[in-house]
Write a structure and sequence with these properties.
Chain lengths: ~190, ~950
């Protein structure tokens, strides 16, 4: 058992000795295929030098085909239906987070409200994305509806959490004290 | 289970409300001053050199001991208020202060060093006449108490009665004095008006009447037409002064056959003045001195001597206001207070034996020009090392100030005992400092060019900066000094409003007619002003006409003083900050004034208009400039006032006409033969209500009925029988006279304490059936709809409010009650309840809420309503004055401060206590123990860490780019 440990130690020592060898400040390599540590990067590229612009990977065929068009259509529908697909998930989160006002439900609601709003704000960019599709308008409307539904859900959540100023009590603080029409005073006869 | 839950909720609420004072906060925001009242009797304890004390008995039924060096109280024993505890006399011997209280009801002996009760004896019934210490064989052993029909002798050591004897012919003879001179006899002197003197001699050992003498023979009857003033002088010689014949009568008591002598003195008596005799008996076991004072006029005294049955004047003192004898060792001296000039008096000592003036014994007393004249003089004489007589004097002036002076006129201390009887008070904001006022003034002025404005702005900012640097420097300078040396001297010159307006001027009006200006932070009296010729039963009403907000106009307070006898009133207008009488001349009021009314109208000098209603229901305005009269004419139809005549049970409402006459518009009569009106309370004029309604559990609003003209009238039944007595509460609109609500509490009795604020009325009464104190709260709501949210007019409110009421049991009786008040009315309200124990309880209004449900529901929990519990708790953490009891608390005054969370409270009674309360805790102030060092070091640390890491990140990026 003691022997291999000793061997290991020897190895470690030798490596340290190798690291300790003096490095040159700079070196000009004229020959190829040198196995020195400095030339590791070059050696990984292979032994041969390729001309500029040469790539050893094959270049894909970029010409549009019929199958790709279907793919684009599908991809666009994915984008358009994205917000609608979020809704069941949101509903589940809503249900889970409850109606108490604490940091987590608030964060959830904020996220839920923020995402559709953000999407609605960058509507033109999304439309540009859908430009290539033939059912561009339908997809756009579906996308819009999805986002509107998402924000409606967020508003509903706010409402159920009592964050919307929909009750008279929410405006109570803004009621000014009424002006007094009569001045009155007096008291017990002194 | 539900019960347990409600209990838990309740406990939780209670815990969250706990707000007691921390140990290190004691005395930081609060102070208490203890008073004793007007001194009736004073004695100096002088038997031992080490423990010198001043024993006092006062008109507030207090026996107290003062430290003569500082004027602080050593101890104070407070008896019942009123005639039951009235101190009839105070006798002092050795370590015992013997007191007769309650018109001869009790005889008590107090131990003078610690104020412990030695003994107490219940005396036989009968009105008290006189008490005297009786000594035999050079030691004082007994106290003799003379009552209308009896005389009794008690042991001084334990109070036990040695004997009691009935006096003969007590229905015809007016006994007035009891006297002993160290022998075995006790003399009781009496007068039969228009007839003769009666002298009865008792044997001290067994109370046997040894002789009874009717001295009809000696004194001619016309001498005794008026009750003669008699005292005993020298070796048992009775001296009586008679005003009609200008002569003195002498009668030796001890001789077998008394022969009266008459000696007329060629002294002139002041007109209509009853001569007064003043003698001294330094030791009760020895006969009195042969020298005595005879007062012949308000400022005329004569020192007389009796020798060999002959009276001879020793010295004539004129002018001399007050005289007094003092004894030290074997020497007896006479002290005479005589006026020096307008503002000073001097006290000199004279040898009692010869009437010679003692050298270097003059004490000059400088009288406060705003104070009263000296009224009483108590002298404490002592022997100096060189055997000459030194002395200290205690002078009491008309304004109940007691001053202790020592030679040669140095004031050792002064006590303002008038403050033991504060009648009413106001708190006034302090003025801004010069620089602050400068800044304020800048905005008020008209613009005079852009460049000039900029320059002015810059210069004022520079002044502010300068002031700030000076302040910082002072802070730094003070920080180096030990804490004890740093004194924050408050003087009238350095008074300035602080950042949060927490320091105010307390203007206090006392029953004696003395006004005080007290700094609310330190409790120091900054000014005082004595109003002479104020009748003792006068009624005061203090009003702030102009606050300090109208620089450069000085603030102005007006005190209405009404004499109860004549009904005539006078106005005293003064500056509440400096106490000086204002140069504004108040109107002369020729007719009795019934009430006053401070209008929110202002004249061109920003002083509010005060209306005074006289007994012909005519109105006088003050100030009454043209501007004011014009405004009044415009506003007249909107000005209403009400008068309550408790004796006739009549409430009447009046409206002002344009010509300043009035017309009666309503009248409510509460039959005085059934019930009497005990209290009428409106709302405070400076009260703000932030929230116009209450949020319910379902998030709808229940709007409060905030009628500013609402009056709460409380009546008590005349019949006080337990079964038939009742308490009535009426809510009446003061403009229309409409009775909004009436409630009758059957089997209830007063005294009733009432607080009326916002939309609620809280009152406390005695439930005669269950024999307990109860609180009842009335709350008024308009409903879920507001009738008119912009204006409130009592003339246009067709719907009656919903009234909710709930009652609670309170475990203690109460002395007074007031509600907290804050600047904007956002902070929740507390009730401040003064208890007879001297504690002041801060009771959250939350507990007095008629909407408290019997069973907690989801909605009520949402509303934070505590489930109803009939018992109201008293928690010791709610005592805002921890152990600083306020004895006989009579009133609590609350004032808002600049901080919304903070309310300033002053409780006054026998003591004065000032503190701050935070009903919703200090939500707008950093905590006292806020760790500024930690927070700032963390901030700075983070800041530097960001800087360093930014630099490091830059270096790292650069390095990576180089790679």
């Amino acid at each position: 058992n003691a022997v291999p440990t000793g061997g290991m130690e020897e190895v470690a020592v030798s490596t340290r000795g190798g690291g300790g060898t003096r490095r040159m400040k700079w070196a000009l390599e004229l020959s190829l295929g040198n196995t020195r540590s400095r030339g590791d990067r070059q050696s990984s590229q292979g032994d041969t030098l390729y001309p500029i612009g040469y790539s050893d990977k094959p270049v894909p065929d970029t010409s549009v085909q019929e199958a790709d068009r279907n793919l684009v259509e599908k991809r666009c529908w994915d984008v358009a239906l994205g917000p609608l697909k979020q809704i069941p998930m949101n509903l589940f989160i809503m249900y889970m987070s409850g109606n108490t006002i604490s940091i987590f439900p608030i964060m959830m609601v904020c996220m839920m409200a923020w995402r559709p709003i953000q999407a609605l704000m960058s509507l033109s960019a999304t439309f540009k994305l859908l430009e290539s599709s033939s059912q561009q308008w339908l997809q756009g409307i579906v996308y819009l509806i999805g986002n509107l539904l998402g924000s409606a859900l967020a508003i509903y959540k706010c409402q159920s959490m009592g964050l919307l100023p929909t009750h008279s009590s929410d405006w109570l603080a803004f009621i000014e004290p009424p002006q007094r029409m009569e001045i009155m005073g007096g008291g017990m006869v002194l | 289970m539900a019960n347990l839950r409600t209990c838990l909720a309740f406990l939780f609420l209670c815990c969250s409300l706990c707000d007691a004072v921390y140990e290190d906060q004691v005395g930081k925001f609060d102070w208490r001053q203890q008073y004793v009242g007007k001194v009736l009797f004073a004695h100096f304890e002088s038997h031992s050199q080490a423990s010198k004390k001043l024993i006092l008995a006062t008109d507030k039924n207090i026996v107290a001991s003062l430290n003569p060096r500082t004027g602080d109280l050593f101890w104070r024993q407070v008896d019942k208020a009123g005639p039951e505890g009235h101190i009839d006399t105070l006798l002092f011997h050795g370590q015992d202060a013997v007191v007769v209280t309650g018109n001869g009801r009790l005889l008590r002996s107090w131990e003078s060093s610690v104020g412990a009760l030695n003994w107490e004896m219940l005396l036989d019934p009968g009105s008290f006449l006189a008490a005297v210490l009786v000594g035999t064989q050079d030691s004082v052993k007994f106290v003799a108490v003379l009552k209308k029909a009896t005389v009794s002798l008690h042991y001084l050591s334990n109070g036990h009665q040695k004997w009691t004897e009935t006096l003969p012919d007590s229905d015809t003879v007016h006994y007035q004095a009891v006297y002993s001179s160290g022998g075995s006899q006790l003399f009781v002197l009496g007068v039969v008006p228009h007839s003769h003197l009666s002298i009865i001699t008792f044997n001290i050992e067994d109370g046997e009447i040894t002789s009874q003498c009717n001295s009809a023979v000696c004194f001619s009857s016309e001498v005794l037409v008026i009750q003669a003033r008699c005292t005993v002088v020298g070796q048992g010689v009775l001296i009586c002064a008679d005003a009609s014949t200008l002569s003195l009568y002498m009668l030796p008591l001890s001789s077998e056959e008394p022969v009266g002598l008459q000696q007329s003195l060629d002294l002139d008596l002041a007109l209509g003045f009853q001569p007064v005799l003043l003698t001294t008996q330094p030791n009760p076991a020895r006969p009195p001195l042969a020298q005595f004072f005879l007062q012949l006029g308000p400022d005329h005294h004569v020192l007389l001597q009796l020798s060999d049955g002959h009276l001879s004047p020793l010295r004539d003192f004129q002018p001399a206001f007050l005289v007094s004898f003092a004894t030290t060792g074997e020497k007896t001296v006479a002290a005479v207070l005589s006026p020096k000039n307008e503002t000073a008096c001097s006290v000199s000592l004279y040898s009692a034996d010869s009437g010679r003036r003692l050298l270097d014994t003059t004490v000059t007393i400088h009288l406060d020009p705003n104070g009263g004249k000296p009224e009483k003089l108590y002298v404490h004489a002592f022997l100096k090392k060189d055997d000459s007589v030194g002395y200290r004097v205690l002078v009491q002036t008309e304004d109940h100030t007691i001053t202790f002076l020592q030679q040669p006129g140095r004031i050792v201390w002064t006590r303002e005992e008038a403050l033991a009887d504060v009648v009413t008070m106001e708190m006034v904001d302090l003025p801004l400092t010069g620089t602050q006022a400068e800044l304020e003034g800048e905005f008020g002025k008209k613009a005079d060019g852009l460049a000039a404005m900029v320059l002015k702005r810059l210069s004022s900012q520079l002044i502010l900066l300068q002031a700030w640097i000076a302040h910082l420097w002072k802070l730094f300078y003070d920080a180096r000094k030990p804490r004890s040396q740093v004194k924050n001297e408050v003087t009238i010159e350095t008074l300035a409003r602080d950042e949060f307006n927490l320091q105010k001027m307390m203007v206090m009006v006392t029953a004696s007619g003395k006004l005080f200006g007290i700094d609310s932070k330190s409790g120091m009296v900054l000014w005082k002003h004595y109003l002479r010729n104020v009748q003792p039963n006068a009624v005061f009403k203090l009003m702030v006409q102009r606050t300090t907000a109208h620089f450069p106009h000085p603030p102005q307070c007006t005190l209405l003083i009404k004499d109860k006898e004549t009904g005539l009133a006078a106005l005293h207008v003064f500056n509440p900050i400096f106490g000086k009488k204002s140069h504004v001349t108040p109107p002369t009021l020729s007719r009795p004034v019934l009430q006053s009314l401070l209008l929110p109208l202002m004249d061109q000098d920003y002083s509010k208009v005060l209306l005074l209603i006289d007994d012909e229901y005519k109105v006088t305005a003050f100030p009454s400039t043209k501007n004011v009269l014009q405004q009044l004419q415009e506003m007249a139809s909107a000005i209403y006032f009400f008068l309550v005549d408790a004796s006739q049970g009549k409430l009447s409402g009046f409206r002002l006409r344009k010509d300043l006459s009035t017309e009666l518009i309503w009248e409510v009569v509460i039959p005085p033969e059934v019930q009497k009106i005990v209290a009428v309370k409106g709302k405070r004029a400076n009260e703000h209500v932030h929230s116009q309604g209450r949020v319910m559990g379902d998030r709808s609003v229940l709007y409060k009925y905030l009628n500013p003209n609402l009056l709460a009238v409380v009546t008590e039944s005349v019949d006080t029988h337990q079964e038939r007595s009742f308490v009535g509460v009426f809510l009446i609109d003061g403009v229309t006279g409409r009775i909004i609500h009436e409630a009758v509490q059957r089997k209830a009795r007063g005294p009733i304490h009432l607080v009326h604020s916002e939309n609620w009325v809280v009152y406390e009464y005695w439930n005669a059936k269950s024999r307990r104190n109860e609180f009842s709260v009335l709350e008024l709501f308009e409903g879920t709809e507001l009738y008119n949210s912009t204006v409130f007019s009592s003339l246009d409110r067709p719907h009656l409010p919903q009234v909710l009421q709930q009652s609670y049991i309170f475990p203690s009786s109460i002395s007074t009650m007031e509600a907290t008040l804050t600047e904007k009315g956002i902070t929740s309200r507390h009730l401040l309840v003064g208890l007879p124990s001297g504690a002041i309880l801060s009771l959250p209004k939350m507990f007095l809420d008629p909407r408290r449900p019997e069973m907690a529901t989801e909605q009520s929990r949402e509303e934070n309503l505590i489930p109803y519990a009939p018992e109201m708790p008293i928690r010791t953490e709610w005592f805002i004055n921890y152990n600083q009891s306020v004895t006989r608390v009579r009133g609590i005054y609350t004032a808002p401060s600049g901080l919304e969370s903070t309310c300033l409270v002053v409780a006054y009674g026998l003591d004065i206590f000032q503190t701050r309360v935070y009903p919703s805790k200090q939500f707008d102030v950093l905590k006292d123990d806020y760790d500024y060092v930690l927070i700032s070091s963390v901030l700075f640390g983070l800041f530097f860490a960001t800087m360093i890491s930014k630099r490091l990140a830059q270096v790292k990026l650069l390095n990576r780019a180089w790679r």
